[in-house]
Structure formats: structure tokens, C-alpha cells
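Sample entry (388 residues):
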Amino acid sequence: ASAAVFQARCLGDPCAPLAAIKEFLSTGPGLLALGGGGDRVFSKERAALEELRGHRNIVTLYSVFTNCTSAKGPSYCLLLELLDISVSELLVHSSQHGCSMWITQHCARDVLEALTYLHHKRYVHADLKPRNILWSAEEECFKLIDFGLSFKEGNQDVKYIQTDGYRAPEAELQNYLSKAGVQGGTECTSAVDLWSLGIVLLEMFSGMKLKHIVQSQEWRANNSAIIDHIFASKSVVNSAIPAYHLRDLLKSMLHDDQEKRATAAKALCSPFFSIPFAPHIEDLVMLPTPVLRLLNILSDTSLQNEEEFEDVVDDIREECSKYGQIVSLFVPKENPGKGHVFVEYANAGDSKAAQRALTGKRFNGKFVVATFYPLSAYRRGYLYQTVL
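Predicted structure, serialized as C-alpha cells:
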């Protein structure tokens, strides 16, 4: 690998948010040298992130610096925002049964928003895969990372792009010709990113790794029929109309002919994105946010007796404040959300610490269940009837 990633915090400010340092293994003498592996990838990623800085669904570059303490000589580093769980990890959790439609739609919309912006700037990501899509707990969205293979359309500087299992047919052909020493051929376009995302979303829906399927002769002969089969086998779990909208969206992204493949902007117009979904409880456990939701704490008696209710809420506030600054605390007395305790922290780091500490803890003789909750929904006063 040409880089390693570390978690970091500012030594002079223990309250500062954690960040990520991506350190590139230097192979050349100059900071902006383009001849060596590590330097070349560093320069490419730095240039891309500086030009793309500011978009909600693209990892934020804070600064660039040189690490002169390495025994192997100076290395070049990117200081980036620290993100949370990756889609790759979500796929491990959802193996066999697939991700919920809520989380699949959330990921699809966020990544398509990123790609629309990326492609407008004429950038191709060129390595879109589950490991390169991460959740931001603070901004409550998925973000794209790792722009080491990215390039501007019409200026493709490497022939070997994308990862096995997520590589578009035209990139497979280009890679094959390059290995065979055949010069020429057409350059890849932004359409390769849509293919990769299509495979990622199909894996999220199916709960299966599809590498061997998409590399099979059957897939090459008729991938549309295989997609139909995957969706037909899941029809019992997912309601028909939303599943069909997702199926049609994925088919539009997985055309073998890149000219017929949907653009990111066109894909965002799919009716799939007009359907409101509720999160499963597993989603709210896996995706951190600044809001914590505590279940199995308040009894009906506590809700009905005002004095007892105030005492219990004061106890909860005192316990929760041990883990960070509380912005607000809300306990609905009617459905939806009756008896649930919503605690908004100043940042997601505090809510994660509270969730780890409070899950399974006994409170008034009951075992606490602690999940996260979407901050945007909480601030709108929208309480999901969570799907179990």
C-alpha cells in the first residue's frame, strides 16, 4: 500500500475533535514529485480534495504537512476529517439479509450527490467501493474518500483503475489491453463510477458479495436477468413497489454500454428517492449521530405521575451528562416515541461514549437499550415508528 491512516487529536486541546492522518510512503525527493508511487498518489489526492473541498458528501481535507520524524525519511500527510463506519462494515453486519431500504436509499442518494458534483468538476473517482464510502456521525451522511486513483476526464494518467468486483466493463477491457501491452483504446469516463455504485447498492440490497457473480460469463451475457433473479428472491422481505424502483435504478447504472448508463444527476431523479422509509433499529445502533435514544427506562406509572416523571428525568439527565455536554433532552408522553428518552449531545463523540456506557446498564431495575437517532428528524420533531 502507498499510504497508512492514523487517528489523531491535537495535543494542546484535549477537547478538539479527532481527525485522520493519511501518511503516504514517500518514494521521491520532492513534495510534489510525480514520479514515485507514494508521492504521485499523494499529489493526485491532494489536488482532487483541494478542488472538491466543501461538498457535504466528500471527505474534508483540513491541511497538508510533512512528517520529518520517520526513520525512512520525510513523508507527506493529509489531515482529514475522521469518519465512522464504512459501507464495507455495514455489509458484514447485514450479511445474508441485506441492508434496510432506509440505509440503502440514504447511501445511494448521498453518493450520487457526491458523484454529481465530482463529475460536474470533470473528476472521475475511479475506485468507488464499500470501503471508500464512510458515514459521518457529525453531518449524518455518507461521504466518499480515497481519491488516489481519481483523474480528470480526458486526462487519465493510469490505465489500471477500480477494484476487482467493482470494475466497469470498459475499465476491464482497458486493463486487459494494458497488461497485454496493446497501446491505444478509449479512455474511461465518469460512467465507470456509476457502474461501481450500482454493484455496491446491489450488494447492500442482497446481502451478498457479488465479485464472483459479476465476473461470471452469465453476468456478461445477461446481467439484467441476474438482477431480476436477485430482486425476485428478496420480494418477501421488501415491499414490491420500492424494490422495483431500486431494481430499475440499478439496471440503469449497470448497462454494459457506458453511453447508455445513467448519469449521477439522472439517477437522482429515480422515483426510488421519493419513497419515505423508516430506519430499522439495527440502523440506529450502527450509524452514530449526536442524538442518543434510550429505551426501556420509563414505565407508564412514571409517565402519568408528574412528580415521579420529573425525578426520573433529572436522574437521567445527571447520568447522561457524565459523558458530555447535553444540548437538549426530550421525553414524549404520547406515541410515537412514548416513554423514549432522546438526548442531544454537543457532538457525536460524546453520544458514542454515552451509548457504549449506557447500553445494558440497569436503571430503576431495567436494562437500558441505547441507540442513536437521526439529528435532522429529531430537530424537526419527527419520531419514527422504528421497524424492528
